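Researcher: Here's a chain I'd like modeled. Treat it as a single chain, no partners, no ligands.
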Amino acid sequence: MYKDNSICVVVPCYNEETQIRHVIDTIPDYVDKIVIVDDYSNDGTINIVKDCTAANSKIVLLELKTNQGCGAALAGGYKWAKDHDIDIVIRMDGDGQMNPDDLSALLDPVVNGRADYSKGNRLFTGKAFQNIPKVRYFGNSVLSMLTKIASGYWHIADSQSGYTAINKKALNAIDWDQMYKRYGQPNDILVRLNVEDLRVADVPVEPVYNVGEKSGIKIHKVIFTIGWLLVKLFLWRMKEKYIIRNFHPLVFFYFLGFVFSLTTFILFLRIFIEWYFSGHIPPINALAAMFSFMSSSQFILFAMWFDMEANKGLKV
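Model: Modeled as a single isolated chain. Structure tokens:
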């Protein structure tokens, strides 16, 4: 128990035989249950977890029958915690990259009732740029910016952090079978939390790297995959939150912004074609292109501002 709240740590893992024992051994004593969800590992992960279970009655091992991705493994743990009426659920990955000393800092905003969901922010400290591999740091920064737009949580950074805490209210509000199953899961859950008007806190945590972990993330592939996922999630949030559940005129501003953006692209393309073949830039075409560009910028920026205002009550 932590401040009269039952605590469960969910650990999704895949081929973490070198790290999983250390992760289990360093989880604080106030944690009531440790749910290890194995995503069909083909190494010795399960045997090590079973060995730990003999000495630690808090451990629950869930085994997926096929490899489905970290999001699916996490959803399995969340559903177990929901079924067992756990107050607060922490996610800690099996690769040892989450410092257990930061766990209480993640719990406090949720336990105190200020937030329904808290997440670690590795980019907040000065160590981030030195400790995080540069390619991953850049990719994370780009995805964090896109996630702000897609999710409506403009105060959140380090969107790819999986070190999180979620309370019972949020746990019951989301359909975990619908959550994205792979590396885009942290982005997906933020969008779903926003649609449910749940409060999210960003908590500084220590970035932990080079502890023997093996990353399966290919940044050059993931950034485009998650980028496309964020486009779909953004459109889903606009429809679900601002059209179906509670209409807001910002959808018109976004729509007009996208229409003028497409028009701007077509007009500038025509300018370059005319200039390439004739060496002449049509003045009316150029004027229309600039007008369209300014219109698209203003509509989109106003839409973002409206979105920030609509969600400012969810900032912790």
